[in-house]
Amino acid sequence: MNTVEFHNGNTMPQVGLGVFRVEDGEGCRDAVAHAIINGYRSIDTAMIYGNEESVGEGIKEGMKHADIERSDLFITSKLWIDDFGRDNVEEAYNTSLEKLDLDYLDLYLIHWPGTDEELMIETWHEMEHLFNNDKVKNIGVSNFNISHLERLLQKTDVKPVINQVEYHPHLVQNDLKLYLESRKIIMESWSPLMNAKILDNETINEIAKEVGKTPAQVVIRWNIENGLVTIPKSVTPERIEENIDVFDFSLTDAQVKRINALNKDQRIGSDPATFNGRK
């Protein structure tokens, strides 16, 4: 399994399992367990997904059958906007730990920046408190634009290790990518397959034939070639196995450029500049 190294020296697997829109219950538990049994070491969830308990059950089951320790895994969850503020962050973190039945998280993210800059900065200070007191291994952000990060870095001490954002062939966010690289902050993609919509793309399918892989594997490998961490979501056992079987081939620079050229600056999710936690 490939890993990326954070600016603090810690590492993270480059491919993990995402569970956004995976309903709490047996299907979620089984997907997480199957992923771990089949080589995944990174699982990404969030309080707002409402499935942390099932994720925790899947982690326990997967560890048992894979005969691995908790330290072999990298578990991420996220702080929702409703839990921003000085008095809420640690309680929200502990609630996630309780639901997951874990002693710590490897990564805790601010899920969205929100529209109140002062509150966002205050919240990050509380994230720093968790990190400085060894309650969480790493802290980062999600869905932050350059302007959000600039304000954060000006007023805080601990730099985020990662920014998890919408990223796929129709939204490459190159300016943000270059900015993060210049600050040594890792970029992570959510919805890398555009809810499977990108898998019908002609260019992606042409490249899949050229390399003898599936369209999904090509897109995931494209993330890897561009230096990102990625967390494709699936509950189907065959798809879960397919999505991590991406380390026995590579894409040429020309193939990567062909995929990059598919960019349309097209979002399928909310705009971080205006999203306040309510649809």
Task: Summarize the helix and strand pattern as letters.
Answer: EEEHEHEHEHEHEHEHHEHH
- Largest sheet descriptor: 8 strands, parallel
Work out the strand percent.
5-15%
Please give the radius of gyration in angstroms.
18 Å
Content-based structural category: alpha/beta
Query: What order do the strands of the largest sheet run in, or round the barrel if closed?
Result: 3-4-5-6-7-8-9-10
The residue ranges in which pLDDT falls below 50 over 5 or more consecutive positions are: none
The mean pLDDT is: 97
Residue share in helices?
25-40%
Strand runs, count: 10
| Shape assignment | globular
Cα distance spanning the termini: 37 Å
Tell me the number of helical segments per DSSP (H or I, 4 or more residues long): 10
Structure description:
The protein is 40% helix and 13% strand. β8 (162-166), α6 (174-182) and β9 (186-190) form a beta-alpha-beta unit. The chain has helices at 26-37, 52-66, 89-100, 117-132, 146-155, 174-182, 202-211, 215-225, 237-244, 253-260; strands at residues 3-5, 11-13, 17-18, 42-44, 74-79, 107-110, 139-142, 162-166, 186-190, 229-230. It has 279 residues and is α/β, with parallel strands linked by helices.
